[in-house]
UniProtKB/TrEMBL annotation:
Primary location recorded for the protein, binned into one broad class: membrane
Stretches assigned to the Major facilitator superfamily (MFS) profile domain: 10-389
Keyword Transport listed: yes
Cellular localization per UniProt: Cell membrane
GO cellular component: plasma membrane
Name assigned to this protein: MFS transporter
Its membrane topology: Multi-pass membrane protein
Keywords of this entry: Membrane, Transmembrane, Transmembrane helix, Transport
Lineage summary: Bacteria, Bacillati, Bacillota, Bacilli, Lactobacillales
Length: 397
């Protein structure tokens, strides 16, 4: 029977919450050129600052998200929101690149609340409906990703880019008021496990479940190649078309295709092996970069490639979440922590090396980097991990 705490309005609230909070870590991407100009920096330096946000998010996933298995998840979410507001305000008032870099790191660390919300939703959902529920919540996550780029890019074209972070702080504060009233109480009675004891179990879970390792590697690859593109898009648009942050932000709206597809992907993950859906994600991401390298000099080709790339990323995200949440509900936060750590480490390195390759070899270097990472992804998914999971895994993949 469906959990009464998880009705459609609660799922919608969780999706909206994920959208508003995750937006924080993506605001920087369309405004990198503006930041570089204001602080008189090379593009590669701003790329390194953008990497700090992703790294902060990755380590927040590793060190904070697992707490959802031992503390009240509702309380944890609300406390993270308060810290996210302070981090956004620090970015707003940053007088130089050093303060902004610290703020960027803290924004990443404190914006992990969606990764507590996602396993919470998976825990509350009936087993046969987890793919659908997770697909809906992850739709909110993707809305936050794409709208953050659009809002950031458009606002930075008409006012100082710092105002983006002031808006973020206000939106999170308003969200916090709603969640205090509407977010379901956590029904789980926790065991008396210390934080240190809980953290020590994370490597054990990674060692025990090859399917978890496979998901983390796949997330690393798919989000890595996604960020290779988004971190360099504004520079490509400047060189190719003379465009700027506004156009980069508007192009991010094309990700609505992934938003609409997420619930459908979730249903597919409920009825087919998630590994099959993940393989499709790899194929779509590779096809996207094929379109970029051949037709990327034309705006129609760029648009087509963006739609395909966002679909590929979403196929991997939803299906990976569905399969790791089916392992053991009592360790769902830790499973999500490991998966998303790999996911955002890929994003951080994708941002950094994407900017580096742009400076060294331009658009061809960016696409070549993505193809190289995708080759590793195909090897891991189709050659290495199927055999490992078959021999040692205890769940289907």
């Amino acid at each position: 029977m469906k959990n009464k705490a998880l009705n459609s309005s609660t799922v919608l609230l969780m999706a909206v919450s994920a959208a508003i909070i995750v937006a924080n870590i993506n605001y920087i991407q369309p405004i990198e050129a503006d930041i570089a100009q204001q602080f008189n920096l090379a593009n590669a330096v701003v790329g390194a600052v953008a990497m700090l946000t992703q790294l902060g998010y990755a380590f927040g996933l590793l060190l904070i998200v697992p707490m959802g298995d031992i503390v009240n998840r509702r309380t944890l979410i609300l406390r993270l929101l308060a810290l996210a507001i302070l981090s956004a305000l620090l970015a707003f008032i940053a007088p130089n690149i050093w303060v902004y870099a610290v703020a960027s790191l803290l924004i990443g660390v404190t914006s992990v609340a969606p990764q507590v919300i996602i396993p919470y939703a998976g825990f509350l959902a009936p087993r046969g409906q987890r793919g659908r529920v997770l697909g809906n919540v992850l739709s909110g996550l993707l809305v936050g990703v794409l709208l953050s780029r659009t809002v950031s890019g458009v606002l930075a074209s008409v006012m100082p880019w710092q105002n983006v972070y002031l808006l973020a702080a206000v939106m999170i504060a308003l969200l916090g008021v709603v969640l205090i009233k509407k977010l379901p109480q956590d029904p789980v009675t926790r065991h008396r496990t210390t934080y240190l004891e809980m953290i020590k179990t994370v490597p054990q879970l990674v060692k025990r479940y090859p399917v978890l390792r496979a998901s983390a590697v796949n997330g690393f690859v798919l989000f890595g190649v996604s960020n290779v593109f988004w971190a360099t898009l504004v520079f490509y648009l400047q060189r190719q078309y003379g465009w700027g942050s506004r156009e980069a932000g508007l192009l991010a709206l094309l990700g609505v295709t992934g938003v609409l597809a997420a619930p459908v992907i979730g249903r597919l993950a409920d009825h087919f092996k998630p590994r099959t859906i993940i393989g499709l994600g790899l194929v779509l991401s590779t096809l996207a970069y094929g379109v970029f390298i051949v037709f990327g000099t034309r705006i129609a080709g760029l648009i087509c490639g963006i739609i395909i790339l966002d679909l590929g990323t979403q196929f991997g995200q939803v299906a990976n979440q569905a399969r790791i949440q089916n392992i053991d509900p009592h360790a769902s936060s830790r499973f999500n922590s490991v998966f998303m750590f790999g996911y955002f480490m890929g994003g951080a390195l994708g941002s950094f090396f994407g900017n580096l390759l742009w400076g060294l070899a331009g658009w061809n270097g960016v696409c070549g980097l993505a193809f190289g990472v995708l080759i590793l992804g195909f090897y891991a998914h189709f050659v290495h991990y199927p055999h490992v999971v078959k021999r040692h895994g205890t769940v289907t993949n």
